[in-house]
Amino acid sequence: MAVQEAKRANRLKSGKLVNKLVNEYWEDLINAKKTGKKVIYTTGLPIGPFMAAQDLAWIHGEGYGARVAARHEEKEPQTFAENRGFNRELCSYARTQMGCAMFAEFGVPDDLMPGPIATEIPAPDAIVTCYPGCSTGPQWDWAIERVFGKKIPWFNVVIPYHMGRNGSTYMKGEEFEENVKYVERQFEDLIKFLEVISGKPYNWDKFQELMGVTKKVGQLRMEAMELCKAKPAPASFFDWSIQIAPVNYLTAWPGTIEAMEAVKAEVQERLDNGVSAVPTEKYRIFWEGIMNWNKLGWMADKFASYDATVVAGRYTHMAFWHEPDSIDPEHPLRGIAINHLECQLNLGYPITEERMMTLSKEYSIDGIVFHGARTCRSFSRSHFLLAENLNKKMGIQSTSFEGDMVDDSFYKEELVNTRIEALIESLEAQKSR
């Protein structure tokens, strides 16, 4: 197949505003202890507002791993973690943060030369785990606790897997309601834990204010993404990957509403003026799997060269305050529980399939790319069944390749090229018929 290499993805310019907020957040975190703030390590779902209300700094393990990888500084901390006994097949987010945390605790070995981002992480004063659908998170934080001599207070929020039993479906049913109440009770206990860590009563007024911001940011993001149901799409999955920070570890950070308003305004302006994410869109793709943080730009241009827009994905469209209307800032715990229970990694197979079919219809999907992250088997556990059933029920063709979130050593570029090209050829043949 002849590929026009000159074609490039047309990325959103407003992403620069998000980058500015991200840089402000990390600068604040790096200097947190100098200003008297305590630092909380978190993994899993976005729970920053719980800490922000108490004037506690927080670092999100996956967000930090993605930041290190986006600046191509991941290899040294991953190597250090592997040399200290953490197997290469373990979650690469975990290995990356573990290596950086060990730099902070033990210093940098003479045979490694990590970049500045990989060595700026402060040591934790407490750890909070809030992981859905994966046992890695609690074990990851347990390992960090051991690095720092088992002296770090640790709180684990359990997000129960939503199987869809007892008539429960997405956001409905007996099992769902029981799980919401269970998570709410844990959040009440988390607030008591943070009162002990901070040494002061919980600031409920501030928390409610921050959850009002979170709801607004979530609404703006979902509205902006839904504008991409248009043909051609004005923005892509790779744009929305870059916009994850304001609804993840940056949740409720000052300026997030303004940043997402600017993103939505740019998408609307593109839509009004006929400007698309891919210069000549012919195919619309769904990305199933975690994004690859050190290859976002490369992947965006790769699909653009085939006139294919990756329009939506499970990671971006089924998580991160994706149900903002369920949040009542005056009584926020239920809304937080709902968003966390119904995130993409925490749904039983029938609910996952139903949600993907709905998104595929809404975004006029032609094909699916299954990105199997080598070190996150929990995300890719249902890929073969999803590929078979979406083809059988909707006629959607797919391809798959293995990669990773932040460890690019698992990529085989020739294989990726071959698989994408084969999918495009099959889609072209289908359109011809």
TrEMBL record:
Keywords: Iron, Iron-sulfur, Metal-binding. Its cofactor is [4Fe-4S] cluster. Transmembrane segments: none annotated. The keyword Iron applies. InterPro entries: FldB/FldC_alpha/beta (IPR010327). Coiled coil: none annotated. Belongs to the FldB/FldC dehydratase alpha/beta subunit family. This is 2-hydroxyacyl-CoA dehydratase family protein.
